[in-house]
């Protein structure tokens, strides 16, 4: 057995640059990537695990090492990402885990879905990036596909790399179109961590050290349409203006929080009444995650602007976008360079996204999510009765589920217990006592049952 890795060694990185070592270190990993899996030696695997840990300590962020169960709950070499397929991850040492974390919603079609990987590889062999001058067919075709998938009159869009970029772009579009500057978002809402998106985010721990952020942003309780209307009225009374109301259909990082059924219809009415744009942040809820193609589909509401990310690239390539109606998008036409990106919507990402849409529809991933989500909630509700005092609630829609516990300590013990039993999950960023159940939408029932058995075994042990 290898010795446990518990703390970083002393930092011995030389102060100057070393070109020869840079080349050697880069080549070492490139060679390992190209080595067939069966030919990677045990010595090389241990080097990868050990050096990855040390590199986090020396070159990324030591703080991550204190929060990752892959370090704190692993007895031997730190758990190191290496390969995965479907809903199973395997670390570099060969240890397997059932994945119900889903890359925080990234892996909706599963890890390395063959159709999506094949499309990305095929495009890579043709052209990996744009010329930046010729018209790019994949981006154009993907925009047409998204326009046909989305509700209402959504027609035009812009592709980027991350959900945060999509939110920032939506904010710029709303300000350009309305000529107004203010926004309303929700407490415990999560929209990203760039300075623009962070201004909307509803938790102090991420905001306070970076204040002041954008002016004119007001947060109200999620699910309270009256509070939204009151906030707009208050803004108008003091001479402020509101460009948009931005909300997640179901709050993800707050712990899979569902709004009342009249919430989204009322938001639509309120925004129309006060000539404010309604912006749906579908970065986590979009493309089947909640049991519908988009989260807003649960309430039959058509937003003015929609933000996408995470699953859009099929878990293969980073991909995001924000889309709106022709009427609103008109403000972008006089100067199409008002919002640009060099790599957003690149050919490989668009190929992956187009393939992701085919998988979404052909495999009815939204339908699978709805059915499997209800199955999991029913089984865990029974456990809640069986182990009183350990589970507070199971909630959410589709396979965006939050399993809440009475306190943070129990939540961590359950997550750690699942990890020690070969199940990968984590807490939500804005609600530490809730762990997420957010697996691939096509996760087999056999694996779901295995996860639930391991969860019950964990609860038995805690009891």
TrEMBL record:
Gene Ontology terms: biological process: putrescine catabolic process
Catalytic activity reported: taurine + pyruvate = sulfoacetaldehyde + L-alanine
EC class of the enzyme, as a word: transferase
Keyword Manganese recorded: no
GO MF annotation list: identical protein binding; putrescine--2-oxoglutarate transaminase activity; pyridoxal phosphate binding; taurine-pyruvate aminotransferase activity
Pfam families referenced in this protein's UniProt entry, alphabetically: Aminotran_3
Record keywords: Aminotransferase, Pyridoxal phosphate, Pyruvate, Transferase
Record EC number: 2.6.1.77
Cofactor: pyridoxal 5'-phosphate
PANTHER family: AMINOTRANSFERASE CLASS III, PUTRESCINE AMINOTRANSFERASE
Protein family per UniProt: Belongs to the class-III pyridoxal-phosphate-dependent aminotransferase family.
Protein name, entry field: Taurine--pyruvate aminotransferase
Record lineage: Bacteria, Pseudomonadati, Thermodesulfobacteriota, Desulfobulbia, Desulfobulbales
